[in-house]
Amino acid sequence: MSSTFDTTVDPAYVTARPVNPAGLPTAYSHGGRLTAEGSSVDPILVEIVQGTLASVEMEVETAIGRTSRSPMIRDAHDFRAGIHDRELRKLTGRSYSALVHPIVRDFPIEEMREGDVFFHNDVYESEGGIGHLPDLCVTVPVFHEGEVVAFVQAFGHHDDIGGAVPGSMPSNATTVYEEGLAVPPIKLWDAGVPNRSALRIMTRNSRMPDSLAADLDAECSACLMGARRLGELFERYGREAIETSFDAILDATTETYRREILSKIPDGTYVWEDYAEHDGVDEPQLHTQRITLTKVSDAPADPEMGRPAGPRLIIDFTGTSAQAKGPINHCGDYVGGNFLKKWLAPILRNLADTPERMAELDVNEGIVPLIEMRFPEKGTLLTPIHPGPTNARTFVILRLLGVLAGVVAKAVDGKMPADQETIRYTGVYGKDLEGNDYLMREVLGGGSGGRYYADGEDTIHVVPDSRNLPTEFTESRFPFIVERLGLAQDSGGAGEFRGGLGYEKHIRMLKDAHFMSIADRSILACWGVRGGKAGMPFQVVIDPGGPDEREVDALADAEEIKAGQLVRIRTTGGGGWGDPLAREPESVVRDVVWGKVSAEAALRDYGVVLTGSTDAGDLGFDADATVAERGGRAAWSRDDDAFFDRGPGYSSLADGAAFADVDRI
C-alpha cells in the first residue's frame, strides 16, 4: 500500500477570494487528496470504513435527538450531522451538512487540541455553510497519535438566538442585526473545558435560554462522542489505510455520478428560471433565480481549479435578481459554491435508472469535481453584501432545487419530477395556561412533484428525517388543541401522474396568542411539467367561517389570534407530471375514494365522469361519457403549449403573462 500523502491544495479555494468579509485570510488547505492517485486499497476495508462513517453519523444524530430540549431539535429533527476529512471534504452522503472551512480558516489545524469544540453561526463568515442565524454549528476535530485526521460536525435550527421577534426570523428584517446574535468561529470548549462566558453571552441573548443551553450541550457532547468513535477506527486500522479508504469512497462517488448520472444529460446549454414571490419588505414581485446549465462530455482538465478532464456540469447563475431588501438572500458564492454543489446535487439522482438505484446514491465531496459554478457579481440574491438579511434564505436555496430540476427537465424531455414542496415555518407564541412564555414552531411539509412513472409523495419534508410535531406532545405543552391533521384535498397538481398532497392542520387556541409564518408559494405554486398542472399554494386562514375570518400573509411575525379561534393551515401540493387527460380513470376513481381528489375535481381537472357514490361504496366511472368528455378538450401539445405550468398566481406578478419565455422547449 502506498505511503505517499498528497496534500495538494485546490487552488480554487486559495485564489477565488483573498479575504472574507471579516478581512480574514482564506488560503487554507482544502480539497486535496489524502493519498497518492492510484493507491491500492482493500475493497472490503472500504466497505467497513464507509459503514462505520454512516453509523457514527447516525449515532451522533441519535444522541442529539435524545438529549436535546427544544422541539425544533428533539421533535422536528431539524438538524444534521456530518463527517469530514482533514482536507475538509464531506465523507458521508446521507444528508447535507455545514462546512468545516471557516473553522480551519480561523484556527490552524496544528494548534487544535483534543477536547476542543468550535462554534459559529455567522452567516457571512460561514463560507456559505450556514444560511441563517438560528442554525448553530459545532465542530469537533478527530485526533490520531496527536494529529487532526478528521472532523465531526453538527448544526441545527434552534428556537431562538435573539433578534427582533421570537424565533429570530423577523419577516421584514432589512439587516442581519435584526435577526439575532451572530457569532463568528470561536472555541467554545478548550481541551475539554467549556467557555462559560461565551455560553452565558449566547443564552443571555435568547428568549429560550434553558433549551438553547441544553441543545448546545447535547450537540457538543454528541460530536465529542463521534470524534472518539472515529478515533477508534483510526486506531484499529491505521491512518494510512483509513485515509486511502476515504479517497476511495470519494473517487467512487465521482465515477458513479460521471457514469450513471451525467451521461443521461445531452451535451448542450439549457436555461430556466423560477422565482421567490416576496421578501417581506417590498410588495410581492418576481425575485428571479436563473440557471444556465451547460453539459460538456469532454471538458479538458483544469488543474488550476482542481477539475479533472471528462464530463462536467457548468451551472451559471447569471440573471439572478438583485439582492432583496428583505431576508430572502443566501450567501452562496464562497469556496467556489462548495455548499451549493452538495445542496443541489441530490436533484441529479432523479436521473438514476430506477428509484431503488436513486436511493442508493449518496452525495458527498465526490460530486464537487464534476460541477463548476459561476456566480454573478456581488449584490444578488446569491451573492449578498453584508449586512443584508438572510433568515428566510430558504426561499432561494429551496427554489434553486426546483430551478435545477426544471432546467434538467428541459434537457431530458421532462424525465424529472415536477416541482416539490417548499419548506415553511409556522407557529404560535404567547403565555401558556400557567402564565409562562412559550414558543411553538414547526416545519410542516407538503407534496412532492409527480414523476414520469409515479404520483408524487404526500406530505414529505425537504429536510431529511424531519417531521411535524406530534399532536400529543404539542397539546400537552402548549395552550391549543389540534382538531385536524390530514391531507389537503385537491392540493396536488393534476397530471397523468398527480402531484403529492400537502397538509391541512387545524389549531384551536385556548388562550390569546400570536401566529407567525415564514413561507412562500402562497402566490406562486409548485409547477407542473410536460402538461401537468401546478399544485395548490400555501394558505393560512384565521377563524374560517367565523366573524373574524381572514387570510394571513405568508410572512407574518405577530398575527393576533383570540382564545377559541381556529387557525387553518394548508401547505403546498406538488406539481403534476403529464397531461391530466392521460391519467387512467381508475386512478382518478381511487383518488376520490381515498379523499385525495374531490368529485368536482375529477370532472374539472381530469375529464372523468363519475358514477355511483363513495357513501354507497359503488363509486365508478362511465367509460363512454369519459371518452366523450375528454375528446371535447384540447390535449397538451409539446409544440404549442408551455412545457411548465406555474399556476394562476404567476400571471398576477408577471403583468398578465401566462408563462415565461423560458417555459417553452
Automatic annotation (TrEMBL):
Taxonomic source organism: Nocardioides hwasunensis
Signal peptide coordinates: none
Record-linked InterPro entries: Hydantoinase_B, Oxoprolinase-like
Name used for this protein in its record: Hydantoinase B/oxoprolinase family protein
Coiled-coil regions, chain positions: none
Residue ranges occupied by any Hydantoinase B/oxoprolinase domain in the UniProt entry: 42-580
Lineage of origin: Bacteria, Bacillati, Actinomycetota, Actinomycetes, Propionibacteriales
Transmembrane segments: none
